[in-house]
């Protein structure tokens, strides 16, 4: 497939970035371990379900390197069967002891769901609807209580993280069993975009 215009430029940027990454990989903090070591396998110490938002790159905000994090990213950090399966895979295969659902301030997926709940903006496609419908149960009760839009967004982001934590904990017999019988834990956290700080919920 031949790429043109901005797509071709974007691909070139990625290629250049990867070349820089390869050239610097011994020196850059985020890539402490050499690439060649990765072929021996992986033992990620945490699985992170985070939003796709470009301002919240998981490895960078936690300052972790190659092989450290098992990352699942989807708009709105929602839990569908493939996210459950990904966490099951990390927990069962690599004995990853911690699962973090990482939401963030100003989440566009949560904001779009608020628009939908308030009847302003229905999702335009089946794909977008699949995300909004998973966030909606967390937003609904708040939309009736909170009138201030920015407060509603802030509280809905937290409620959506808690809902995803609950869906991971209880949406899989395997995860439920590992939480009960091993040291596996599922926790929620919020990344604050203006400050770069991660706040873990209930911890
Ligand atoms: Zn987001």
Description:
The protein has 203 residues and is of the alpha/beta class. The protein folds into two domains: 1-31; 40-200, Beta-carbonic Anhydrase, Chain A, CATH 3.40.1050. 49% of the residues lie in helices and 14% in strands. It contains seven helices and five strands; from the N terminus they run αβαβαβααααββ. Strands 2-1-3-4-5 form a five-stranded mixed sheet. It is globular, with a radius of gyration of 19 Å. The model has no long low-confidence stretch (mean pLDDT 90). The site of zinc ion has 7 residues, from α4.
Describe the structure concisely for a colleague:
The chain is of the alpha/beta class and 203 residues long. The protein is 49% helix and 14% strand. The site of zinc ion has 7 residues, from helix 4.
Primary descriptors:
7 helices, alpha/beta, 2 domains, 5-stranded mixed β-sheet, Beta-carbonic Anhydrase, Chain A, 49% helix, binds zinc ion, 203 residues, 5 strands
Low-confidence stretches: none
Order of helices and strands: HEHEHEHHHHEE
Distance between the ends:
49 Å
Average pLDDT value? 90
Radius of gyration: 19 Å
Structural class: alpha/beta
Helical residue percent band? 40-55%
Which superfamily, in CATH terms, is the homologous superfamily of the largest domain? Answer: Carbonic anhydrase
Strand count, sense and closure of the main sheet? 5 strands, mixed
Count the beta strands.
5
In the sheet with the most strands, the strands line up as 2-1-3-4-5
